[in-house]
Here is the input.
Amino acid sequence: MKKILCPVDFSKTSNKAAEYAAHIAQRTGSSLTLLHVLHLPVMDTTESALMASQVLDEQRRKASDKLHSLSMHLQNLFGEVGGATFVTDSKVHEAFLADAVERLVKEEGYDFIVLGTNGGGNTLEEIMIGSNTESVISQVKCPVLAIPHNATYPDIHRIVYASDYQPEDSRAIGQVIALATAFQAEVEVVHVTKHTGSDESRKAQTFIDRLTNELNGFPVHFQEIVHPEKDTGLKDYLSRTHSNMLAILKKRRNFFKDLFGMSLAEKMTYQTKLPLLVLHADAD
Here is the structure.
């Protein structure tokens, strides 16, 4: 992780996401860029186009001022707890959020995205920052950390990776370990099953043995949960164990309809205080 991008709309939710991003940047020595997206107005005449241009110029100026203030807040906040070692800058783009993020990832090498999952008000920007979370996750092929509106102050000490024992899990868990190492956090690999049996046990043991050999001694804990509803079983477990981040692997197809589908993503991202880290099986 070298370059973190954090879209903000200046709502309480996105400001909280910016604090998470700054905390991670400080611990990992990454740079942090705050991004604010302006949405292009509809123009039907030359006169309205001129007015729209003037409005955009004013919005761009105000956004730049707010980004500067937010950047100073983040530097002061984390400078008080050991000195801010990360570099911050800011960008204002006119585009759809997911398109802007995807372009910056491809063209400027951002490799970690942190964003709030919904805004704190009724303005267009505050609404779009929430409704576009799924678009960013689906469109951008790098890790995306989604911060719910009611998340607590940044505190990363226990990360749970939800696994269905697939080969792609190894690379994803390696990314989780890289983040956990910066915070000296525990990593737990959790598998939820509707039933137990000899076949399930053999599959689990084969996966654990293979993964253990690939982790070079990093102490990962494994936990199997039996529950008739996989998403509910996982959510209950996370609540009981006081975990403070969930990591999920986005499969190549139908991510929001597969094992950890839309129901889990919605519950974890919108109804709990737990940040959701989405990793990509098909990332470069």
About this structure: Confidence is low (pLDDT under 50) at residues 119-129, 253-271.
